[in-house]
């Protein structure tokens, strides 16, 4: 599982093993920068077992199958990003489909698919509502027909679509009526009768369905050609438009409405879309648009005309009006008409493919005629089209199809299209398919599908709603530069020759041929490649091919390029920017009459530098002159890109493949040789001496067979610590015994001996293969492109390792069609988008198909973010992680967050989002990272770090009181506990004061001033004291006792006979004393003390931090009561 397995050890083991396969690059132009001599594996593509001399028959045995997995569901592999694939039932193997139809056949679960093979066998595949198809029925009642074109339409008004098709065998049309539940009834066949006076055989092709007589019932319209004359006297075509008007019950009128046109020349109508119906003239009747081909016998340069005929509303049509004449076309077999309003002017327009490289458009005028054709899209590989709003912007877009690739072009709404494809996808195509844009999984996004006629499979590309689809990308430049190479180019021109990390960033890059150039495509870590033209033709003089090696010859962490030349090898060191250094040539000390064969790289002498071993089949292997024998060359690296020595050792009869691996576990690389000696294939292991030489006298023959082993892969497939050999075996069939083709596994014993071979997969044939751990369980899985049509196991086939030498059932992916004809494709493994999972690239071969990329659904990248990246200390920081998934579904497990390397917490996935809130980040810059260890179906991943800066808050402190109110009686006091709390920005002294005290009250503090440190707290206490009401207690020496009033004193001083003068003096003294007594009271009149009631006392704390003064205060309600 991805959660626990590290890939590094396994990747290191694979690094020295050969990734074998095709090198010959297909291009839209045939220019090649190489010598033109065949690459090693092209010879195997043309051989068959019958061409081999059968000798040593005793070695021919039928091998047993590998053990079955102990637990069929004991592994998890989420698969590659690819279309949904469904196999199609039996047919005649003609590799053609006359009808590929989509409709809701059973009235349940959305759009289904019906296919009609060229032999007339009809297959219904029903949808589960998610785009997964399963075969519901197989109808053979039309068997033997040559089906050219088919349409799906409800012919009897029961709400279920029926099928009508044309047959060249009859000639005429076939009808299958829908019986419900995905079943069609027995076919009804109707022959067509030629018009009076015409005796030549009709040529059928196109057809369409529509209501051409306005009665609300579906009619059948057939354009048929009757051609007379010859090449010497000229041809004349009588074209008849037959309108079989519908009866509404699944039958059509016995006598059709016929419109005849006599045209000089040779004109026919192909299958696909060569006729379309639309009301071009806005007169309430359907007109017809015709794509008329001119392919006279013996002529290879084809042309076609675009014409219109105005519908009369009764099933007949008006005169023929040509809109475009003699358009060049290299295609033959299908029409491409698409009639829609592309410029939103209310008039239908006509879009069509022109000569494989251009899409043309004739804009509708609105009167039934069309404007002259203009280019809509240039420099595009195209043979057919479909239209739809693929990015949901309300504008029609198109997808162009050509054998091996589909390209998406977004519309502008004005009738033009963006000249850069939004996406390009690899696939397969053939027959008279009419591609349709439909929604298979009911998610509101348009999807499209292809039927592969060679591998008999339906492939649904689910739309994402943004103009892209779930499919295997066809490899093309991601460059947005104005100069080539750039993203305006079609994928057909790029063929991957080798892969490696050419800039040292950890992602796997590609080396590709492009129409006479060679490029390095650096991974953009999104599944695309930024191309640089790395070499000119001068540097490629006398080069035969590129060795498909992962090798760093100068130890700079960047893989380099090794090319086989007429005399040896040429090394180009990677500069890291997509360019290569001046080449270093090394000559092998023999006369090379043939192309060198496959090589391997590794450190043979323990000096830390990569060395090379290259197989050579001998001059006799290609019938060259000279006596140079079969053998292998050893080139010892100098760590600078060159070699210190080159030694050739004669060995074997026709060495094809050399691979390096430590077979006996002694720390020295041994040599595994695949020898294609005439009539006897031999696999030999030669012990390495550890000094750059091999002990040929101790060579171990580990397998022999009559016919070819086209590829040997080396890894520990059963987990016992010993290396095993997995071989792509072509099988043999002789009188005494038969050994089927398939994949053989020789389990190693760790001592140059191997157990008897077993089949990991039987009955299939493939040229090249690769071992790679695609599901992250630590066991190498086996991936091979199979070119066998006779079984249901075909296309890119993945065998997931189940352990113990067992492999799970094959998982199949569609690959481009011409693998059968050019079975020389390279296959590569690597992490091409930098998401931690192993992906696969399949080279394009020598035919007209692109290279393709299978991205691993297990791959995962993470996006880390924060609601704010600059936060005041103490404020929560909300961190989140979102995955960038290639697959659907939810992740499980937890994400670990760290700041400056220290963990700050974990978060579980919730609907594919992991959230963490923290307030613990320290002041300053915090480098935040997030890592996910992987789960059962997804690889481990780390997000690109982000920086969250924590800033100190403005200088501040807080002042709080333990209580907000106190109650006292006059003359008493109360205390309030005070607390100061500084934030991180404040440090310094704080001084306290009181204001708004009631009369006669005072306040004191336990500490009048406190000094605070940043972020610290401190406490003090304030005491508020009041005074009570007061009376006169003393007056100098005169004591005024309790209960004696001044009035009494006055009474005592009434006249008693003393002198009046003395009495007057005493009275004045008492008055003075009375005044003094009145002045000794506290507040207010009457000497009553602190007044009763409630006063709001303000307690203030004033502090200074640097130059900043901070003042805080609180209110305390002081309630004073009488004593």
UniProtKB/TrEMBL annotation:
Keyword check for Cell division: no
- Keywords, alphabetical: Membrane, Plasmid, Signal, Transmembrane, Transmembrane helix
Mind telling me what this protein is named?
Answer: FG-GAP repeat protein
Q: What InterPro entries is this protein classified in?
A: Big_3_5, FG-GAP, Ig-like_fold, Integrin_alpha_N
Entry-linked Pfam families? Big_3_5, FG-GAP_3
| Source organism, top-level taxon | Bacteria
Q: Where are the transmembrane segments?
A: 1035-1054, 1066-1086
Occurrences of domain Bacterial Ig-like (ranges): 865-951
Signal peptide, first to last residue: 1-25
């Amino acid at each position: 599982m991805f959660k626990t397995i590290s890939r590094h050890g396994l990747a290191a083991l694979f690094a020295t093993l050969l990734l074998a396969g095709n090198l010959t690059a297909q291009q839209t132009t045939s220019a090649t920068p190489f010598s033109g001599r065949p690459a090693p594996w092209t010879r195997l593509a043309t051989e068959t077992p019958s061409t081999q001399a059968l000798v040593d028959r005793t070695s021919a045995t039928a091998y047993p199958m590998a053990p079955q997995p102990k637990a069929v569901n004991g592994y998890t592999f989420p698969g590659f990003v690819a279309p949904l694939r469904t196999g199609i039932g039996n047919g005649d193997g003609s590799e053609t489909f006359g009808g590929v139809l989509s409709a809701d056949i059973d009235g349940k679960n959305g759009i289904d698919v019906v296919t009609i093979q060229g032999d007339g066998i009809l297959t219904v595949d029903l949808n589960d509502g998610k785009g997964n198809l399963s075969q519901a029925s197989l109808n053979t009642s039309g068997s033997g027909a040559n089906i050219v074109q088919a349409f799906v339409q409800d012919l009897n008004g029961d709400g279920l679509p029926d099928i009508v098709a044309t047959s060249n065998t009859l000639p005429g049309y076939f009808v299958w009526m829908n019986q419900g539940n995905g079943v069609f009834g027995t076919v009804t066949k109707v022959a067509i009768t030629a018009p009076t006076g015409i005796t030549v055989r009709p040529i059928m092709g196109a057809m369409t369905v529509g209501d051409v007589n306005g009665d609300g019932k579906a009619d059948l319209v057939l354009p048929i050609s009757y051609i007379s004359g010859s090449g010497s006297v000229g041809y004349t075509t009588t074209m008849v438009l037959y309108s079989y008007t519908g009866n509404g019950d699944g039958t059509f009128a016995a006598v059709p409405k016929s419109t005849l046109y006599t045209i000089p020349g040779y004109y026919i109508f192909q299958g696909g879309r060569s006729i379309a119906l639309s009301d071009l003239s806005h007169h309430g009747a359907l007109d017809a648009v015709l794509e008329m081909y001119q392919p006279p016998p013996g002529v290879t340069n084809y042309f076609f005309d675009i014409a219109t005929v105005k519908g009369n509303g009764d099933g007949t049509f008006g005169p023929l009006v040509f809109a475009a004449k003699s358009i060049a076309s290299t295609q033959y077999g299908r029409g491409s008409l698409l009639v829609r309003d592309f410029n939103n002017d209310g008039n239908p327009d006509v879009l069509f493919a022109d000569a494989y490289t251009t899409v043309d458009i004739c804009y509708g005028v609105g009167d039934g005629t069309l404007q002259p054709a203009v280019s809509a899209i240039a420099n595009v590989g195209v043979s057919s089209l479909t239209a739809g709003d693929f990015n949901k912007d309300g504008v029609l877009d198109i997808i162009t199809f050509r054998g091996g690739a589909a390209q998406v072009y977004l519309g502008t709404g004005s009738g033009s299209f963006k000249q850069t494809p939004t996406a390009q996808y690899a696939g397969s195509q053939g027959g008279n398919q009419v591609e349709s844009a439909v929604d298979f999984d009911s998610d509101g996004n348009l999807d499209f599908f292809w039927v592969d006629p060679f591998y008999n499979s339906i492939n649904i590309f689910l739309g994402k709603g943004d103009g892209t689809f779930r499919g295997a990308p066809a490899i093309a430049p991601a460059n947005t530069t104005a100069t080539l190479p750039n993203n305006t180019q079609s994928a057909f021109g790029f063929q991957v020759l080798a892969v490696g990390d050419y800039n040292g960033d950890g992602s796997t890059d590609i080396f590709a041929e492009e129409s006479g150039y060679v490029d390095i495509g650096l991974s953009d870590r999104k599944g695309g490649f930024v191309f640089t033209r790395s070499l000119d033709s001068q540097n490629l003089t006398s080069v035969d091919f590129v060795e498909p090696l992962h090798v760093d010859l100068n130890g700079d962490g960047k893989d380099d390029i090794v090319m086989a030349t007429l005399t040896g090898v040429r090394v180009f060191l990677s500069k890291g920017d997509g360019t290569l250094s001046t080449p270093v040539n090394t000559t092998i000390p023999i006369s090379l009459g043939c192309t060198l064969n496959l090589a391997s790289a590794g450190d043979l002498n323990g000096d830390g530098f990569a060395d090379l071993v290259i197989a050579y089949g001998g001059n006799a292997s290609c019938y060259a002159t000279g006596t140079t024998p079969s053998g292998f060359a050893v080139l010892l690296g100098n760590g600078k890109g060159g070699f210190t020595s080159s030694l050739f050792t004669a060995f074997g009869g026709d060495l094809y493949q050399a691979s390096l691996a430590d077979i006996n576990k002694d720390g020295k690389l041994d040599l595994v040789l695949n020898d294609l000696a005439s009539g006897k294939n031999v696999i030999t292991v030669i012990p390495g001496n550890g000094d750059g030489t091999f002990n040929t006298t101790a060579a171990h023959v580990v397998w022999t067979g009559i016919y070819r082993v086209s590829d040997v892969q080396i890894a520990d497939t059963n987990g016992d610590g010993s290396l095993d050999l997995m071989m792509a075996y072509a099988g043999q069939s002789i009188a005494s015994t038969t050994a089927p083709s398939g994949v053989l596994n020789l389990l190693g014993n760790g001592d140059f001996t191997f157990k008897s071979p077993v089949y990991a997969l039987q009955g299939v044939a493939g040229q090249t293969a690769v071992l790679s751990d695609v599901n992250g369980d630590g066991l190498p899985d086996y991936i091979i492109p199979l070119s066998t049509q006779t079984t249901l196991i075909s296309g890119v086939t993945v065998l997931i390792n189940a352990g113990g030498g067992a492999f799970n059932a094959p998982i199949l992916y569609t690959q481009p069609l011409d693998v059968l004809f050019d079975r020389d494709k390279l296959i590569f493994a690597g992490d091409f988008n930098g998401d931690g999972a192993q992906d696969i690239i399949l080279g394009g071969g020598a035919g007209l198909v692109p290279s393709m990329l299978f991205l691993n659904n297990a791959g995962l990248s993470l996006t880390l973010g924060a609601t704010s990246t600059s936060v005041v200390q103490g404020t929560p920081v909300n961190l989140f992680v979102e995955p960038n998934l290639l697959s659907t579904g939810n992740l499980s497990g937890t994400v670990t967050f760290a700041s400056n390397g220290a963990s700050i917490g974990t978060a579980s996935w919730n609907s594919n989002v992991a959230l963490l809130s923290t307030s613990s980040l320290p002041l300053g810059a915090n480098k935040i990272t997030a890592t996910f260890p992987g789960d059962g179906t997804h690889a481990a991943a780390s997000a690109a770090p982000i920086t969250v800066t924590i800033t100190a808050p403005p200088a501040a402190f807080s002042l709080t009181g333990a209580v907000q109110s106190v109650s006292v009686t006059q003359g008493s006091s109360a205390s309030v506990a005070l607390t100061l709390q500084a934030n991180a920005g404040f440090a310094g002294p704080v001084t306290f004061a009181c204001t708004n005290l009631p009369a006669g009250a005072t306040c004191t503090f336990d500490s009048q001033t406190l000094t605070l440190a940043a972020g610290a707290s401190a406490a003090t206490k304030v005491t508020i004291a009041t005074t009570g009401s007061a009376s006169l207690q003393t007056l100098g020496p005169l004591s005024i006792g309790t209960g004696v009033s001044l009035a009494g004193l006055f009474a005592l001083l009434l006249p008693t006979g003393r002198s009046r003068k003395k009495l007057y003096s005493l009275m004045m003294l008492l008055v003075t004393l009375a005044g003094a007594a009145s002045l000794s009271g506290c507040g207010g009149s009457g000497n009553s003390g602190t007044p009763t009631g409630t006063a709001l006392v303000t307690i203030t704390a004033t502090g200074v931090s640097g130059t900043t003064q901070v003042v805080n205060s609180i209110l305390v309600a002081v309630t004073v009561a009488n004593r």
